Amino acid sequence: MGGWIVSGLVYGSIVALGALGCSYVLLIQRYFNFTVAPWLALGAYFAWTMKQILPQWGGVELVIAAIVSMVALGIAMTAADKALFKPLRDRGAPFMFFYLTSFGLLFAVRSIIWLIWGPQPKYYYPGASVGIKGPWGIMVTPAELLTLIVAVVVVVALYFFQYRTKLGRGMLATAQNPMLASVCGVEPETVHTTTTMIAGFVTALAGILYGLTIQIRPLMGWFILLGIFVCVVCGGEGAILGTLAAGYLVGIAEEFGSNLIQIPLNFWGVPVEMSAYKVALSCALFLVVIYFRPQGVWKGTFLER
Amino acid sequence: MGYLISILCIGASYAIATLGLNLQWGYTGLFNIGVAAFFAVGAYTSAILTGPDWGGMIGGFGLPYPVGLAGAVVFAALLAYAIAFVLRLEFGFLAIASIMLSTVVILIFKNEMWLTNGVWGIGGIPRPFGEMLSPATSDWVYTAVALGILVGVYFLLEKGVRSPWGRTLGIIKEDPTLAEMVGKDVYKWRRTSWIIGSMYMGLAGAVYGHYIQYINPRTFDDVMITFLCLCMVVIGGSGNNKGSILGAYVLWGTWTVSEILTGFLPEAWQLRAPFVRVLVIGIAIILLLRFRPRGLIGREAAISKMGERIRTGRVE
Q1: Between chains, do B316 and A94 touch, taking CB under 8 Å as contact?
Q2: pTM
Q3: Chain A residues near any Cβ of chain B (below 8 Å)
Q4: Given A151, A300, B179, B247, which is the most exposed site by the fewest CB atoms within 10 A?
Q5: Any transmembrane segments, and where (chain B) (predicted)?
């Protein structure tokens, strides 16, 4: 029982980090960024390549590789935004064009990853790691513990950036009313650049943590993409704490929910293997949420931020 | 010769799916990226209804070909109806709901052995008049059948979009608020268009399955169906049925010819060729949206005053 919840929380942390990037883009640029799936994989591969180059320093090399990869992905996402989406914004193109461009970019980046790194799965540290035993059947590996801590730290840092700094407040203002914000002295281009840079940082981090806890493979972002979208919709766009909570919700729904539903299925002898349908559970969660609360689960209640 | 039949026949099924997507996207403004779900449901329904008894799984109905097509259309429509309530919400939710639908449907087809034989797939799907003809003649006969279906549904859709029904959809795409003000229930109109477009995709899946005669869940991955269909609509020009058919044949022709050409390359390059192909098409669609959003033919001037502005390229 406890083990299912912990694995749900770990998966939820990764989903929440990926969703933060998607959520920022939705808040400022008003479209669901499908490209987050291959970007996530690209961030993980950047860090893997960087780690291969660096010598072994007992874990420090991974930190350096992660920071380099985060900056690189931030630059890559900003460049893509400036080259592809800025002309569309300037032209005032319909929403569909943003969606379709990001969908095209998804396949382009995915095949670039395939061409460079090949289809075989890769690991930062090959071999099984030893878990730390806790009460109630809880078993966490160091990587999972790291994931839980990093997600909370990043969310708190982003929270302070968003609500306590001038640039963060400028972003909120731009999200509400771009015209008024630019009249009040918020540079729209600075806001867009910041948005994509932050999105790049957290997306790369999500990819690295996913690679650390599970494995790195070209389609890793694709499997997590649906969870990310559920998380964005549940959390409410741009609500940072809400996104983290929604990530935990998605993770627990997938890991805990699939195991929980398996028990009565086994009892009645229904031949369905629920572990294959984890994604279906988060899709069901999505449908329930948008049917009853399309504005997000927490928005306007106790976690308005 | 085999390649020509393959281009004509599979191109016809892609063209039917593209017509459905064009109705949803080009005429009504619904962004469907779950084409693979409807396509797969159509193909599997028709295969199970018309197929022989495989043993160990559902089947053995052996119904005639038209019944298989009708079943494919009905099941695709039911699937579309199941998530139609998402149309009440804003634009992006439909995209997400449809991509989820396609993932879940493929997941079910992959895991439920009793229904679809899992990853091993279904083989020996019969063709119309398949038993009484030689394989080569059967190919030609089936091509004629597929092209006939394509022409039939094309004229049906042309008739539809030129009627008051189609013009209402045009208003809903351009300006939902205006449509609501003149008394149209936007949700109901969108739902009709969504379901009819999905029926086209189900039909396309059935046509495809009977040509290929062997289907498995990998046949319906997102690259092959959803992405190609979207590209076909964009290449031909959204909101133009002739453009959809042209786009389908141009893209599928290019795809097949490039497959033939990569056959001559050394083996190390052959493994990479599919990814290069997807990369090229992905970049092409981005550039097309950037520099020529109207596509090859572009949209027809349907609504009188908009006509001039569309021709000069100010409205997309």
Answers
A1: yes
A2: 0.88
A3: 26, 31-32, 84, 87-88, 93-97, 99-101, 103-108, 110-112, 114-115, 225-226, 229, 233, 273, 276-277, 279-280, 283, 286-287, 290-291, 294
A4: A300
A5: 5-23, 30-51, 63-84, 91-109, 140-157, 194-211, 223-239, 246-265, 271-289
